[in-house]
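S.,

Sequence below, as promised.
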Amino acid sequence: MSSKITIIGAGSVGATIAYTLANEDIASEIVMIDINKDKAEGEVLDIIQGTYFRDPISITAGEYADAADSDIVIITSGIARKPGQTRLELTQTNVDIMKEITPEIVKVAPHALYIIVSNPVDVMTYVFTKVSGLPENQIIGSGTILDSARLRCGLSEHFEVAQKNVHAYVFGEHGDSSFIPWSCASISAIPIDEYPTAVQALGKKIAPVDKEAMLQYVQKSGGKIIANKGATFYAVSASVCQLCGILLAASDSMMTVSGMMHGEYGIDDVCLSTLSLIGPNGNQGKVQVKLTEEEVAQLKKSADALKSVIAQIDL
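The prediction came back faster than expected:
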């Protein structure tokens, strides 16, 4: 089955998503759009010259009109935070970029599923939802997919078990107010807190996980990578490409994507991440798992942090 994916933004994240997709069997056609046309054309040329080693695929640099009939549109456009710039200033700049992009792309690809990757992603997802006028099932913020992947990586290393056996999630903002609902975390069917005891009889000596340290690992990983190499793009690209595959799959999956809240856990009119049902029909809505009272309070605190930013932007 052929599929067309358009990527808006040819920066490090957008280009790496395009490169990753070009090495997978997810898309048969990829279009890259960027205000810097030379950059987009350069990225496409570099990527397509390596496609000799795979089945044929179309990769082009284009204009908004070339996004027509896209199955998925991925928006990565925005600027990185500059020295001395406040988070709010960065937010407003990227909100303005999103407001400029949205009507142009929605006009030519009204039926596409949209993946919002631009940061701050929860605010950008909210803005796109309000400005685009599209049904909410077509809008998926990348949310805490990457945070959850970082969590599973950290837990896998701690418990010395394959990542695919780790079932744990990060909820809330893709940012400093995120949290881990430990009541939902398990190694296969074994609750996280019980796992060290469960494997002790097998000669495995594993200490209980330091939950606060693990949250810090998740929240600070992005900053550490940026400090060391200047940007993060490999892991976020892998998570977005996995999301593309799920949206084009035959059945649904559960993922922590960002989407509008409509009273779930007592939260309304803000986009953040909890478990959602995702598949070929897009974002089908939040699935309310049972959280503890403390976890619900943490989710509400994260929602309030995002609402305080939204209240200060010019939408």
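The longest helix spans residues 87-108.

Coffee later?
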